[in-house]
């Protein structure tokens, strides 16, 4: 086992227990780890750390930097034991989220493509210890990452000390799936030579300064990947609308007949959209994305995928089994890159990636909230959505038109938090329909979004608001004193529906100008 | 004269009057023109068009697409005569702005780097006629642009018909200053081979399909460039703060000793900041920017500039004279590129551009409003600020801490319109000081911005708001029902100052938790 996993004989001397490795972690340290989605993050060391803290009642506070979200063994355990004091750049863990919203953890939300360079530019705290998961250490002391690459190459370069977790649940056959290419700091950068999703430009290992390694830990804890919700009527409807739109765009000459690479956000809705492709006429699909999900594996199975490039593979538990069982076949269709490459604006704009992301809420002007509910309650973070939306050939956002049993309209007068501005949103799709915002003014956008995307339950409210706002003689028809009333209503009456509270407020004058006439 | 300016003999037959050229413009057309800032835009044809409309009481409505803002002969004349029905992507003209805010013109605000590809992808209306200013038509029927490049190469390629204005006020010696390189549509794009601000990668002319040319018009109307406000105490203070910060960053190893290229927004404040460099120890400055302004010419004069790359030269009237008088010398230090290259994310991120832009207002969370006052009154548009801020090595925003005789705080609880989100703003500088937001959580950012950037007159109000918001137990300390109260106060009492109206609203509990303690 050890012989298979650590081929560099000298390094075998560094093998120790997770408990011993965790002892290196001291109060006040900045710890950076591998991991992107609950894939490829260290598990044994953080578990040992939190166990120690729990048992000894120690007071240890650290800053935790990862590629993106990680599993509960890391984010959950550390948050529940009050170990994390600052968290960068993204998370999806219940305990961690709760601690952030409580104010117990300071959260710094960063575009995922920018994080590696923020570390390289010394913008963040120095990394005292890096903890990275590997499937193998090669003859020359290089590491093979596992199910994600994320910021691992950056950690290995910049951390003062390194703990490596060899995870034996990760197949040794992962070797070859990665393509490690990192960027020097300006002014030494040169073009990134990716001209096609399938281009491999780097190595399949990460070079390590062996002197930095303070511990190697063996573990067999599997990636804590999540089950996805089944596609439902609404997500299937959105997929259909999107595919119909694709047809239309191709016919209009706005998208090439052979399509362009797709990026797809993470989660159930995105997964459903991709599922839609399996029922479509399209094949030879290319993905230049972040995360390889179940639907991409399924599309590979039916021969519809040319290449899926990302920074992590993070399917459901069943999907992960399927991937492990047939890894050699999948490996020929999958490339895992560092997130500074998977999410790089240069490549996204060059390849002409069609970006598909989900929104928490959209407003009638075309702004999108991806991260904070009611203006400040963190859900997950902006993640990579900004990297893609801003540089995409076409930037598409999906959201169901209502939430929480129709008590919430996800189409609101003004989003309570802006992650993607009106300038970065081309298309909005709900189960109600599609708003194509390209070339439209704020007034035209508002009408299109209300007419096409809002739920019928909320259409009147939004129209009344807009009608009143149109009277204000502004470029953007907005009423600052009423724009957030829907959230007030929600807070006080548990619904955004009309009647419970002065909602889009005092709209007594219903005989005003008809906004639809004005918009011609 | 004609012989000098039109070397292609065949094309001389197309010479006609501006009046005749303007006759080609019909109701419902989409017209795209050269021009970026009041530089290099067509003047005679739009003047002739508006004169005709005025005299004949004709009803002609067009969509007008330009590189960015243009002069009054175009934007002003067409707006005042109700000719413009839709305007894309940016403007700075009083009459045009008024018509947009009135609802007479529909305005579509687009990132300047995206506009050329939106045209190439057929996302916008087809261009019926392109009107472009040239200093010269070469032997082979190619055109030499004048003081801006902007979207001219895209117009020449995509417009169905072309009108060329030969402007004899533009020196024939402009030839050689331009570097024309355009991008094919995906999937045919390859890396843009700029590794250094000084790299020339294209031609110094724009190829034209001669069959498209329907008229060539001669004019000698000069670029309607604007006088800049003199640097004042506040802008000088901001320059000093920025230069001190640069020193500090270099010492800390976060910016290379030889500096990196700078981008500078347009206008008086930006000009003052650049002026600061003349008094600094820094030389061999490089600019990878949009607009070459007076301060850059001055820096060239004192030998401090290696290269200034942009898409337009737009100094004051005196600056323009200076440039014309010594064009051969300046030409060796200036490159004018298409805006899809000057503002390209690929190059900006590769070169590590330090982006310096101005804000209309900033909020305590780090969001920036660059475009719309009171949420909807358009000032100019987002312009290129987003292209740079999002891809910069370091994204810096400048604003004086108050406006309109201190009745307005430019640091507000929540910006009334978001152009740059918290994720894209590293540094905020006012005359009061500097907030370094890198690696900070929303709460930490709020404290830093209030303490360092807000004007003392408004500090208490902002602190009280924040203190109250901190109680809400959110990742982002926000009170949606109070966040816009300052704008309500401004609207009703002409000031954001406390006392006139319930401002940051009902902050009766002044004995709450001290937010400063909490932020440790």
From TrEMBL, chains A, B:
Belongs to the acetyl-CoA hydrolase/transferase family. This is Succinate CoA transferase. It comes from the Bacteria. Pfam families: AcetylCoA_hyd_C (PF13336), AcetylCoA_hydro (PF02550). The keyword Glycoprotein does not apply. GO terms for biological process: acetate metabolic process; acetyl-CoA metabolic process. GO terms for molecular function: acetate CoA-transferase activity; acetyl-CoA hydrolase activity. InterPro entries: AcetylCoA_hyd_C, AcetylCoA_hyd_C_sf, ActCoA_hydro, ActCoA_hydro_N, NagB/RpiA_transferase-like, Succinate_CoA_transferase. Residues 10-217 form the Acetyl-CoA hydrolase/transferase N-terminal domain. The keyword Ribosomal protein does not apply.
